[in-house]
Structure formats: structure tokens, C-alpha cells
Write a structure and sequence with these properties.
Belongs to the histidinol dehydrogenase family. By secondary structure, the chain is of the alpha/beta class. It has three domains: about 5-25 and about 235-365, Nitrogenase molybdenum iron protein domain (Rossmann fold, 3-Layer(aba) Sandwich); about 30-235 and about 385-390, 3-Layer(aba) Sandwich (Rossmann fold), CATH 3.40.50; about 400-434, no CATH class. Helices cover about 45% and strands about 15% of the residues. The protein has 17 helices and 14 strands. The protein has helices at about 15-20, 25-45, 45-55, 70-75, 80-100, 135-150, 170-180, 190-200, 215-225, 250-260, 275-290, 295-305, 315-325, 340, 360-365, 400-415, 420-425, and strands at about 5, 105-110, 115-120, 125-130, 155-160, 185, 210, 230, 240-245, 270-275, 310, 330-335, 350-355, 390-400. The strands form three sheets. A six-stranded parallel sheet has the order 1-11-10-9-12-13, with helices on both faces. A five-stranded parallel sheet has the order 6-5-4-7-8, with helices on both faces. α2 (about 25-45) crosses α8. The structure holds nicotinamide-adenine-dinucleotide, L-histidinol and zinc ion (ZN).
Length: about 425
């Protein structure tokens, strides 16, 4: 079922990344599509957002602001088992993110000369929650809990208008907002919503940082506004890579490849293995399991698209080179001694170790964050964590005596850079120059 790329004859490290499975619509192409959408929101504000909702979501909301009553009503009518599941996710994700909070530290560099490392929460943030092909109350939890643990004061959240619900975001999203005490919520989706957060529109004031997952258009819009605001990462269309050897269970591997293909016809499912027998068995399992899935057409398109496939390698070492070059959003390790193998992975949004840690555990309840970098950006960016909502600032304070101690070497250094006024700023404070 999956196409095959046979690298058992070897490969050169330089050419590797370019030879791996790749989506037909990449982020550079999506940038062209979203540039006018973001510009339109910057120029025309709410009217542009309403026009875009009508065009892409098939409904024109009365307003982009979601009234508080819609949130409480949604929670009141939500199935109690789902309320319990969302609350359990909130609890687990909170525990998983509290350990990320850095401590303020202070060090005396010379007697009386101190550097203090402070962490300041972002003033105002905008959280994006997808809602096109599927709806994601779990992304409300991942975004909001992380921002709250970091201590952000002002939190706004947006999700696409839903035709079925009169132009409001999906009720499970509104109910999750109510459970988390998020009360500034907008009905706006896609690139326009990212423009709204970056530049402001109607009652939504501009934010300092935008976080959250979305499709390729959302990821491209985040890249576009970076610089006007901060972003977490380009958390775009879902990807799963699985590094597996002959010891792997093909039923588990196929189920996990299929689980992420369910998100989007453009989702990527990639198997990397040194076992042809396993690759064959996974193909048989995929064919059988894909028939039973609810979203069969979407899954088939994802699994057979150019972004998905099996990569055959000669050894586990080669497999590690492949997964490091690919830098998947999610990487599962199904090998002997999986923990040791996982330690050799440098590039992945999140790593899931062993046969009993499937990606869907992390999607909802494992306590980790599911907002993760895609498109190979895990080479340089991280999954959503409290640091996306914190700034680090060094606070410096020297006494007269401490400054005296560094004056002579600093003057020497500044003169070497031909910046003598720098040295002068210390010399005017120095006892020997008064
Ligand atoms: N990387 C992560 O952390 C992560 C987490 C969860 C979900 N995801 C991904 O998020 C995505 C959710 O996608 P979705 O579509 O369900 O919801 P979404 O909210 O991301 O996208 C819907 C919006 O896309 C815009 N859009 C649709 N077609 C467009 C077009 N042709 N041109 C410009 N804009 C267009 C519209 O504004 C629409 O409101 C999936 O791709 C899923 O795989 C990623
Ligand atoms: N796998 C998604 C990240 O790519 C997150 C998610 C949310 N709900 C289900 N899955
Ligand atoms: Zn998922």
C-alpha cells in the first residue's frame, strides 16, 4: 500500500533529505496563497474575516466575537464522559508542563557584580485551534494549559466558524474553553485568523505571540507574520515516521501510521525499516485496517500520496540517518532496545518509545504536548512548551567597587574594537579618573 524507496544500496548524507517522501503542496507554495488573505485582514479587519469564513468555512458568522454564554451553554450540554476526559487531559498536561518552568537564578561574577536570569511571561498571546476537517478540543488544552502554566496574563483563542453551529466554533472547543477559564474567544480560521492576532481586528487587539497547530495555510501564515509577532513553531500538517526493525509488531505499526493519516489527505505516514518482511506485513495490515476506518477516503489519499511511503535501509544505523534527515513531527521507535535507539535521534518534534507508546497517547492524555513542528523544522524548533510563552531577561547590577575591577581590561578590549567611548563610560566612574 505504501510506495517504497529502496536505500539498501546506500546513500550520500548530502542528498538524503531531498530524496525522502515530500508533500505535493509545500509551505513555500502555501505562502503565495495566504499572503493576500493576511493582507486583507490587516486592511479591512472584521469584514475580511467574515468574507473568508464565508469563502472557506461556508458560513458568514454574525460577528467574530463568541459570547460568554455560548461557552457556558456548550459546557452544560457536553457529554459528562467527555468532560471527564478533557479534565484528565488538563491535569496530565499541566503536570507535564509544570516541570518545564525554569527557576530564576543569580550568580556573583565578581564580588559585588551580579547577573540574574529572569523569566517574564508574554503579556498577550493568541492561541489557534484548528477546525476544518476535524475539531480539536485537545488543542485547546495543549495551547491553553501551557500558556497558563507560564503565567500569561491575557489569552485570546480562535477557531474556525462552523456552518452546523450557526457560525460559532465547534461546541466541544467552546466547552474546553469554559473548563479552562478562557473567555476571549473568536470565530475565525485559517490565515485570516493569524492575521487577526498579528495586526488586530475588531475587538481583538494584537498579540505578542501566536501558538497552535493548523493546516499548511495556517503554518504558512504563521511564517508570514513572524517578526511582527513571535510564534511557537510551524506546527502544520501532521506527520508520523516509524523506525522499526524485524522485532516490531506490524499490527501496531500499521495502526499508528493510519492514526495520523486520519488528520488530513496531506498527512504523511513514513515507515523506515531494515526488514522487508516487516514492510510487507505492515502493508497487509494497512490494507486491512484502512478498510475499517471512518475516514477511508482521507486515509487512502494520505497513505498513497507523495508525502508517505516506506524507506528500506540496510541497517538500523542507516535508519537513524534517515529519520534524522527527515525530522518528523512524531517519531515512533519500534526496535529492540528502543530507549537506547531513541537517544540517538536528534531531529523529531516528539519521540515515542516502544510498542506501548503510540502517538495518539501523546495527542490526548500522555501529558506531553501535541503541538509539534512539521516539514523538517524540528531541526531547529521545538514542540510547544512553556518557553514559547516566556522571555528570558538578564538583569545586571554592579557596585562601584565591582565595576572598578573590570575597568582596565574593558578599556583594553574597547580600544581594540576602536570604540573608546565604551571604555570612557567606565573610566568616568572610576576613582583613579576623578
Ligand atoms: N503539527 C501539529 O502540532 C498539529 C496538531 C493538530 C493538527 N494538526 C494539523 O492541523 C490541520 C487541521 O486542518 P483543518 O483543515 O482541519 O483545520 P484548520 O483550522 O487548520 O484549517 C481550516 C482553515 O483553513 C483555511 N483554508 C482552507 N482551504 C484553504 C485554501 N484553499 N486556501 C487558503 N486557506 C484555506 C480556511 O481558513 C479554514 O478555516 C491538519 O492538517 C492536521 O494534520 C497539526
Ligand atoms: N496528532 C496531532 C498532531 O499532529 C494532534 C491530535 C489532536 N487530536 C488528535 N491528534
Ligand atoms: Zn493525531
Amino acid at each position: 500500500m505504501l510506495s517504497r524507496l529502496d536505500l539498501r544500496g546506500g546513500f550520500t548524507a548530502d542528498a538524503l533529505a531531498d530524496s525522502l517522501p515530500r508533500a505535493a503542496l509545500d509551505i513555500d507554495a502555501a505562502l503565495t496563497a495566504v499572503r493576500p488573505l493576511v493582507a486583507d485582514v490587516r486592511e479591512r479587519g472584521v469584514e475580511a474575516l467574515l468574507d473568508q469564513a464565508e469563502r472557506f468555512d461556508g458560513v458568514r458568522p454574525e460577528t467574530i466575537e463568541v459570547p460568554a454564554k455560548a461557552m457556558t451553554d456548550a459546557l452544560d450540554s457536553l457529554d459528562r464522559d467527555l468532560v471527564d476526559a478533557i479534565n484528565l487531559a488538563i491535569e496530565h498536561v499541566r503536570i507535564g508542563h509544570e516541570i518545564q518552568m525554569p527557576e530564576e537564578k543569580s550568580v556573583e561574577i565578581v564580588p559585588g557584580g551580579r547577573v540574574t536570569q529572569r523569566w517574564i511571561p508574554m503579556r498577550r498571546v493568541g492561541l489557534y485551534v484548528p477546525g476544518g476537517l476535524a475539531v480539536y478540543p485537545s488543542s485547546v488544552v495543549m495551547n491553553a494549559v501551557c500558556a497558563q502554566v507560564a503565567g500569561v496574563g491575557s489569552i485570546a483563542l480562535t477557531s474556525p466558524a462552523q456552518k452546523e453551529f450557526g457560525g460559532l466554533p465547534h461546541p466541544t472547543i467552546l466547552a474546553a474553553c469554559a473548563l479552562l477559564g478562557i473567555d476571549e474567544v473568536y470565530a475565525a480560521g485559517g490565515a485570516g485568523a493569524i492575521g487577526m492576532f498579528a495586526y488586530g481586528a475588531g475587538s481583538c487587539l494584537p498579540v505578542d505571540v501566536i501558538t497552535g497547530p493548523g493546516n499548511i495555510y495556517v503554518a504558512a501564515a504563521k511564517r508570514l507574520v513572524l517578526g511582527t509577532v513571535g510564534i511557537d513553531s510551524e506546527a502544520g500538517t501532521t506527520e508520523i515516521a516509524i523506525l522499526a526493525d524485524a522485532s516490531a509488531n506490524p499490527r501496531f505499526v500499521a495502526a499508528d501510521l493510519l492514526s495520523q493519516a486520519e488528520h488530513d489527505p496531506a498527512a504523511a505516514s513514513v515507515l523506515v525499516t531494515d526488514s522487508v518482511e516487516l514492510a510487507d506485513a505492515v502493508d497487509r495490515e494497512l490494507a486491512a485496517q484502512a478498510q475499517a476506518t471512518t475516514h477511508a477516503a482521507r486515509v487512502r489519499e494520505a497513505l498513497t500520496g507523495p508525502q508517505s511511503g516506506t524507506v528500506l535501509v540496510a541497517s538500523l544505523d542507516d535508519g537513524l540517518a534517515v529519520v534524522n534527515a527527515y525530522g518528523a513531527e512524531h517519531l515512533e521507535i519500534h526496535t529492540e532496545d528502543a530507549e537506547r535507539v531513541a537517544r540517538r535521534v536528534d531531529n523529531a518534534g516528539a519521540i515515542f518509545v516502544g510498542p506501548y507508546t503510540p502517538v495518539p497517547a501523546g495527542d490526548y492524555l500522555a501529558g506531553s504536548n501535541h503541538v509539534l513542528p512539521t516539514g523538517g523544522t524540528s531541526r531547529y524548533s521545538s514542540g510547544l512548551n512553556v518557553h514559547a510563552f516566556l522571555k528570558s531577561v538578564q538583569q545586571v547590577e554592579y557596585s562601584k567597587e565591582a565595576l572598578e575591577k573590570i575597568t582596565t581590561p574593558l578599556v583594553t578590549f574597547a580600544d581594540a574594537e576602536d570604540l573608546p567611548a565604551h571604555g570612557h563610560s567606565l573610566q568616568v566612574r572610576s576613582a583613579s579618573h576623578q
